[in-house]
């Protein structure tokens, strides 16, 4: 961008491209920086025609901005892909190791399960001396088997207690029903007794009425008059 001084005014000379659209002239200046921002006015070559002052702002070119921003964006994407790859390299072997370890423990628990006391023959002794680690391993498995036996015993006992409780509840229900039936029978007996008493009272009343009627209907005995001598 070149500048010339004429009559106290600064004339800028730079490469520009004109675009004419619907009575509007758009002009793009090249090789301009932010320092060139300010108030400007347009004039003809003979400087007879001049436009009012207007603020000229500098904006970066889209092509240059994209070209400058693409390396940064590509660099950030590279870092993201690299971090994801490192995480995958760490996570995948860890998951494989955990799965293998879990399967090995499960297989070992099924294969190395201690034999029950009934299956072990009495009087059979090992031909060689056991190592300390083997003895500790056997002791730990024996403790585990004892705990499992205790748990199973507790479970069976709890189930037996539950059955007893259910039986007691059934017995109590039967007892309540029996008591209700006995009370109802006693009430029925009392009602029957009251009915019998009422019947007897009615019979006695009828008998009394009959007696009274019989007395009324009987002829009175005549008195004999004795003659005096």
From TrEMBL:
Keyword Transmembrane helix: yes
Spans traversing the lipid bilayer: 79-100
Superkingdom per UniProt: Eukaryota
Start-end of Basic and acidic residues biased regions: 186-203
Listed Basic residues bias regions: 204-229
Keyword annotations of the record: Membrane, Transmembrane, Transmembrane helix
Region (Disordered): 186-229
The protein's name: Immunoglobulin V-set domain-containing protein
Species this protein is from: Pleuronectes platessa
């Amino acid at each position: 961008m070149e500048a010339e001084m004429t009559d106290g005014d600064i004339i800028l000379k730079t490469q520009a491209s004109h675009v004419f659209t619907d009575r509007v002239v758009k002009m793009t200046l090249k090789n301009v920086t932010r320092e060139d921002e300010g108030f400007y006015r347009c004039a003809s070559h003979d400087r007879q025609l001049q436009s009012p002052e207007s603020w000229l702002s500098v904006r970066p070119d889209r092509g240059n901005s994209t070209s400058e921003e693409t390396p940064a964006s590509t660099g950030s994407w590279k870092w993201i892909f690299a971090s994801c790859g490192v995480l995958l390299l760490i996570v995948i072997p860890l998951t494989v190791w955990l799965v293998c370890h879990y399967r090995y423990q499960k297989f070992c628990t099924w294969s190395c399960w201690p034999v029950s006391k009934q299956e072990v023959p009495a009087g059979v002794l090992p031909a060689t001396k056991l190592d300390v680690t083997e003895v500790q391993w056997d002791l730990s498995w024996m403790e585990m088997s004892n705990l499992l036996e205790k748990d199973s015993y507790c479970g069976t006992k709890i189930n037996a207690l539950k059955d007893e409780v259910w039986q007691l509840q059934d017995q109590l229900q039967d007892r309540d029903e029996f008591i209700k039936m006995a009370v109802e029978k006693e009430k029925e007996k009392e009602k029957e007794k009251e009915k019998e008493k009422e019947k007897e009272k009615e019979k006695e009343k009828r008998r009394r009425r009959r007696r009274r009627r019989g007395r009324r209907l009987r002829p009175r005995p005549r008195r004999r008059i004795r003659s005096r001598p």
